[in-house]
Amino acid sequence: MSDGAPTLDAARNILKTVFGYQEFRLDQEKIIASVLAKQDTLVIMPTGGGKSLCYQIPALLFEGLTIVVSPLISLMQDQVSQLTQLGIRAVCLNSSLDLIEYEENVAAIRSGKVKMLYLAPETLFLARTQALLKGVRVDCLTIDEAHCISDWGHDFRPEYRKLVEVRAKFPHAVTIALTATATAQVRADIREQLAIPDSHEFVASFDRKNLVLNVLPKTSPQSQVLGILREHQGESGIIYCFSKAQVDDLAAVLDSRGLSVRPYHAGLADSLRAKNQELFIRDDVQIIVATIAFGMGINKPNVRFVIHYDLPKNIESYYQEIGRAGRDGLKADCFLLYSHGDSQKIRFFISQKEETERRVAERQLATLVHYAESDRCRRFSLLQYFGEEAGENCGACDICMNGPRDKVDLTIPAQKFMSCVKKTGERFGAAYLIEVLRGAKTEKVLMNGHDKLSTYGIGKDFSKQAWSLLARQLVQQGLLHQDPEYNGLSLTAAALPVLKSETAFFGNPLEIAGAPARSSRERTAAKADIDNGLFEILRKRRKELADEQNLAPYMIFSDKTLIDMCAKLPQTREELLNVHGVAETKMRRYGDEFLPFLRAHANGS
Question: Which pTM does this prediction carry?
Answer without folding.
Answer: 0.79
